[in-house]
Amino acid sequence: MTITDPDARTAATMSGAEITDEALAAWVREIAELTQPDAIHVCDGSQEEYDRLTDELVEAGTFIRLDESRRPRSFLARSEPSDVARVESRTFICSEKEVDAGPTNNWVDPAQMRAELAEVFAGSMRGRTMYVVPFSMGPVGGPISRVGVELTDSPYVVVSMRIMTRMGAEALAQVGRGADWVPAVHSVGMPLVDDDGLRREDVPWPCNDTKYIVHYPETREIWSYGSGYGGNALLGKKAYALRIASVLGRDEGWLAEHMLVLKITGPDGRVYHLAAAFPSACGKTNLAMLRPTIPGWKVETIGDDIAWMRPGEDGRLYAINPEAGFFGVAPGTGEMTNPTAVAALEHDVVFTNVALTDDGDVWWEGLTDEVPAHLTDWQGQAWTPDSGRPAAHPNSRFTVRADQAPSIAPEWEDLGGVPLDVILFGGRRATNVPLVAESFDWEHGVFIGATVSSEQTAAAEGAVGALRRDPFAMLPFCGYNMADYWGHWLAMGERLGSHAPRIFQVNWFRKGADGSYLWPGFGDNARVLEWALRRVNGEVDAVEAPTGRLPRPQDLNLEGLELTDEQLEALFAVDRASWLAEADLTEEYFAQFGDRLPAEMTRQLDQLRARLG
Ligand code: GDP
Ligand code: PGA
Ligand code: MN
Ligand code: MN
Prior knowledge:
Elements: E1 2-4, E2 11-16, H1 22-35, E3 39-42, H2 47-60, E4 63-65, E5 75-77, E6 91-93, H3 98-101, H4 110-121, E7 129-137, E8 146-152, H5 155-164, E9 166-167, H6 169-176, E10 181-187, E11 212-216, E12 221-225, H7 230-233, H8 236-252, E13 255-257, E14 259-265, E15 271-277, H9 284-288, E16 298-303, E17 307-311, E18 317-320, E19 325-329, H10 339-344, E20 350-352, E21 355-357, E22 362-363, E23 375-376, E24 382-383, E25 397-401, E26 418-419, E27 422-426, E28 436-438, H11 442-450, E29 453-455, E30 467-469, H12 482-496, E31 502-506, H13 526-536, E32 542-545, E33 548-551, H14 565-572, H15 576-591, H16 599-612
Helix pairs in contact: 2-5, 11-12, 11-16, 15-16
The structure holds guanosine-5'-diphosphate, 2-phosphoglycolic acid and manganese (II) ion (2 copies).
2-phosphoglycolic acid binds next to helix 9 and strand 19.
Cofactor: Mn(2+)
EC number: 4.1.1.32
Enzyme class: lyase
């Protein structure tokens, strides 16, 4: 089959699965006319297709095939040094009205943005293949699941989407059956044929210095240009499952959240489910795969980054993981910290921006205590321990199917999701925020979520370590006005009533005077989860502090930990002066939302101040 443009500028050959849906066929044609690819391939999601694409990526120099005996069917990609993280400054929520995007999002008038994008996308796929990537977020056909179609000129994106989503023929069939689907267009922005018809050589990681990550919340469309990096280019993930889905959730009465979901079983066999929102690179993947250091407890993984949650028939809040894979931070992932992830990464992995060992395997800071004497770093340069720079990029990532994690819960694909007992909000705070505090009630929990600050990480462009507000860990991902989003959470609490999960604040990252972490973290975080569940069960009392309820010293299981009394005290210290200063900053922060700010948030702030005295 050939799609022929009347003025003969595009004549793209077509291959792959057959599109039967008229609307989808028309849209594919329209985008092909705009972007002018040489060929169009409709992905069926098969192993053969994956193998062919990875072969082509190796051929093109985008992928390095790792040693088959050490890391079977696995690859290393090295991005352009400028294309290593999400670009929040170039991420736009183009709602009809600016106030609907709110003060925390970049906004451009949608008509103006459409005009700009029409220009940058014109001819942007020349000389390349445009892949049609049908995908389902959530198990195909599930009542909470949703489909989308990404058009992309990046085979790296196609391969990654097959790992991260349910991609291919089944999702395409859903579109054919009339399911609502979200259109998403992606181009790396580096055509191989210029305006005069001259061809140029491709590069291993094509991208463009100009980037756009654009969302139209009313029409539910996504357009991404200029980047190949996961968070910018795998459009099922942040763009759809968070930014667009948060808008769907607002309109339809559910929640799309930047949360891991885990199942935890106690020594008595009781099963609980917990969701936790931490900003990017603040511990979600690690907590989702936690191996408890306290006996009798077991954690299994449902999801590590995104949760879609809605009230079930019994009135409780149910969560699904809309993804099918993990796009995890590599540095810091090792046998001591996250042995589950290490086991998940034995085969069939795409690594991006980690280091290459001399025997064809991968390495990153924290994988092993012993540092290899010689490596090739993430930029392809020779590296030794005294090179004075990290071998792997701080935001280097692994992409792997979820069911490769030995911790995956049998119910991780349950169509209706799992009922939540506990929700955690956290961030990376060297000071002020205690290890754990229970909220007084749902409204106070929403206030805690709304006022989270966290030190910035390498997951997005910007100064690492700078403290910023990241409400609900959704700052870069909320597709509408953040104040309305808080209102939506408050309304959800009213709907859930006594069935609502209990909300806690946690902080694994508090530091002592010497600058080192006070809390061992990782597997020992199970001690905090245990306390939270004992609170849920009404087994233990708590100490009322101005910022929430803290554990009584005897209730937190510290057996086997080498923690001095001073360290323990420092972990839970609530310094009134610092918290009053934070309250002033919160007042300033809230002011930008004007009359959209729910009155309840102001009430919570007043109460916090009153408790602080
Ligand atoms: P995510 O991006 O939110 O999924 O965060 P990850 O789980 O990938 O963790 C990001 C970084 O934080 C990694 O380098 C981890 O090793 C580190 N990290 C995760 N959990 C803990 C913890 O409990 N304590 C400390 N100190 N570091 C942690
Ligand atoms: P993360 O996911 O939360 O695991 O870091 C990617 C991101 O948020 O950029
Ligand atoms: Mn994330
Ligand atoms: Mn993660």
